[in-house]
Specification:
Growth Hormone, Chain: A; mainly alpha
């Protein structure tokens, strides 16, 4: 006869459910980039217009993360997390049947509000559930869902989009959301209520130049990556002439090295330090963007993406650790703002890339020249992030490592 699960078993069940929830959220965030080829073809819109779906969603998530964190302070977290996943599923199901781009844009905008809620609130819940000696590992574990989404979700979206159409890719996210909602409801304890963040905490963060500089590094890094990454699926198709299988394989390859970078980070961050990890990760991304013109084939592109993959996800994870170490007492506000910075960077990068693609098309550029200049734009953002990161690190060192 099986008895009630132990406290350790309940914690493990919650970790797995929240990790799967983050995997689902990550798949939904990445679905447009992964299936962009079929989306622009099916809805008869330009690459630049299709990329704006990524920019608009990122803006909503950027604004929504701190706003929703301030509004949901008194909610039961079990109900909140489940409701956000159900909203996500319904939004993606409706997006899958949207007849036009004009119908898809508001549906996409409303759907991604769930991403602004689920990921930061899942981390906050895990901080409450896990004992102090397991808190860090538990939070890192649930964030692995995003890394796994990059390994599995992007290639699957790309393959489904190419083979069956973007609507099936959106439909898959709806199914995953339903499964995640059921799992979280089944294993999460009821009655977890977190206090709303104090206004004083927000004020202290916004008026602290070093902390805001570190958060700006996250935004700049995202802008650098998404100047290129938002348009990478059509780039593979139109410039490298990659077929559906090769495009999926490139996404899988990139995601696998992203996961590897995160696993290496968890092993060495205490020894090397978060700021040095961030500098190294950004330098790896800068190197990939610098040598971008050399990737004239699928194999060459796969090799070029290795440094970027190793640095991309590790940089954001190290930024979280860096902020937590700089001002632990302000961690709630800092994590919400850093989440916003991730999405702000995506929005700025995707919008900047859209403007450059549109300009190239306006001057009559052919398929190979449509994406000219994107990697230089991305590189400029990454180099600016490196410079600001070094400044912030030195400023913290002068204060003994604390903000």
């Amino acid at each position: 006869m099986t008895g009630e699960p132990t406290a350790h078993q309940r914690l493990s069940q919650a970790r797995w459910a929240l990790m799967f929830g983050n995997f689902t959220i990550g798949c939904g965030v990445m679905v447009v980039a992964g299936s962009l080829n079929d989306l622009i073809r099916s809805l008869d819109v330009s690459v630049a217009l299709g990329g704006q779906l990524i920019a608009v969603a990122a803006i909503v998530m950027c604004i929504g993360a701190p706003t929703m964190a301030a509004l949901v302070g008194g909610w039961d977290r079990r109900k909140l997390l489940v409701a956000s996943l159900i909203w996500y599923g319904v939004g993606h199901a409706l997006s899958a049947v949207a007849p036009t781009y004009a119908a898809l844009l508001p549906l996409r905008t409303l759907s991604v509000l769930s991403a602004a809620v689920f990921t930061p609130q899942a981390a906050a819940v895990m901080g409450q559930l896990a004992p102090p000696e397991e808190r860090g590992r538990s939070i890192i574990f649930i964030f692995l869902g995003w890394s796994v989404a990059s390994v599995i979700g992007m290639p699957i979206h790309s393959f489904i989009g190419e083979a069956f159409g973007f609507r099936w890719a959106f439909g898959l996210v709806a199914v995953l959301s339903a499964g995640a909602a059921w799992w979280v409801w089944r294993v999460m304890p009821a009655g977890i209520v977190l206090p709303a963040m104090r206004l004083a905490a927000w004020r202290e963060v916004f008026t602290h130049p070093v902390l805001m500089a570190i958060i700006a590094v996250t935004a700049m890094s995202g802008a650098g990556q998404f100047s290129v990454f938002a348009y990478i699926a059509p780039y593979y198709r139109q410039v490298l002439h990659a077929d559906a299988a090769e495009t999926s394989a490139l996404f899988f390859w990139f995601g696998a090295f992203g996961l590897a970078g995160n696993l290496l980070l968890s092993r060495f961050i205490d020894r090397i330090g978060a700021a040095r990890i961030v500098a190294g990760s950004l330098s790896l991304m800068a190197f990939s963007l610098l040598i971008w013109p050399l990737a004239t084939s699928v194999v060459a592109m796969a090799l070029l993406m290795v440094p970027w993959g190793l640095g991309g996800f590790a940089s954001n994870s190290a930024q979280q650790a860096r902020l937590g170490g700089a001002a632990p007492e302000l961690a709630s506000a800092l994590m919400a703002l850093n989440t916003s910075a991730i999405y702000l960077g995506q929005a700025v990068g995707a919008a900047g890339g859209s403007a450059m693609v549109a300009a190239n098309l306006a001057r009559g550029a052919g398929p190979a020249a449509t994406y000219d200049g994107l990697h230089w734009m991305g590189l400029a953002w990454i180099l600016a992030a490196i410079a600001l990161s070094v400044w912030a690190h030195r400023a913290l060192q002068r204060n003994g490592g604390r903000a």
